[in-house]
Amino acid sequence: MTTKMRSEIAEQPAALRATLDSLLPRVDEVKALGERTRQLLFIARGTSDNAAVYGRYLVESRAGRLAALAAPSVATTYRRRLDLDGVLAVAISQSGRTEEIVETLAWARDCGAATVGITNGGPDSPLAQAADVALCTVAGEEKAVPATKTYTTQLAALAVLALGLGAEVDAADLQRVPDAVEELIANPGDLDAVVEGLADKHGAVVSARGLAFSTALETALKLKEACYLHAMGLSYADLLHGPIAVVDAETPAVLVAAENSPTLAGTVALAERVVAAGAAAYTIGGGATLAKAGTAALNGPDLPEWVAPMGLIVPGQLLTEALARRLGVDPDAPRGLNKVTQTD
Question: What is the CATH number of the domain that holds 84?
């Protein structure tokens, strides 16, 4: 039986095409906001927060703008007013109905920020209504609790945002993403070996750096929420500062990198170190170089680094869905989770 999660993973190429067709013509709207702002503040929770990590690395590394991740409790709990003049506040919410995120975006506007909302909830959602510019993704209804197509289309919206902010990239790269995702769904690599390698483990470390760091965080979140695996998402720079001590025969590593990234060499070195220590290193992306250094490999996309995270997450999604089924867990409805989460 095909799970809803697996079906929605398969819908991502179409969702990405529809989202890019809808949002690329709106680059000038973002540009107009960018011309009166200097830095960015990303507002999000959960999976959307992992998307925001991609957005932060993207606008800092390619558009040269300082960016930060908001602490919504400053607005909603401490109710502290900040000077946000010159700030572009970008709120990200799959549903567009998470009250904390909508409230924090309204707070940012009241503090002087220009505002963008990224949501799959449509133009009538509270988040879209609260934003100066609403970038609505076109993923369609997502029925499985773990976000898949809503996440990758959020990344697409953030790539469009970066274009509007003057990112030094080739916009044509975005048009290659749906085909690359389609290819990964058809050929994710040695999925069975990675599933079997994790099936009897209680924990794992998922690590990357730079633009791929968002993929490590999102893969770890998926393994936690749908497979109940104690998965830690860490920058490999932070991992090397001490937590690498937890990586052993019972706690494998999942290492992620884009093939043409300046972080690839460090990821390869980490894979070699993990294997030399007697632990398994399962790799996602990084081409033949990273695959050779690890224990078993999942493929990455043939894409430039700035758009690679839209493809790199797909093998992680497929791994999560397959591992959940292997463990007898329903990936569509993990225990204790709802599609829309409200926080105080």
Answer: 3.40.50.10490
**The sheet that has 67-69: what strands, in order across it?**
67-69, 39-43, 87-93, 114-119, 133-136
Residues 159 and 215 in one domain: no
Are the CB atoms for 55 and 90 separated by under 8 Å? yes
Q: How many domains does the chain have?
A: 2
Percent of the chain past pLDDT 70, that is, above it, reads 97
Q: Which of 83-120 are b and which e, b meaning 16 or more Cβ less than 10 Å from the residue's Cβ?
A: ebeebbbbbbbbbbebebbbbbbbbbbebebbbbbbbb
Query: Distance (Å, rounded) from C-alpha 279 to C-alpha 274?
Result: 6
How far the first Cα of the chain sits from its last, in Å, is 38
pTM: 0.96
- Which tens digit of pLDDT belongs to each residue from 24-54? 999 999 999 999 999 999 999 999 999 999 9
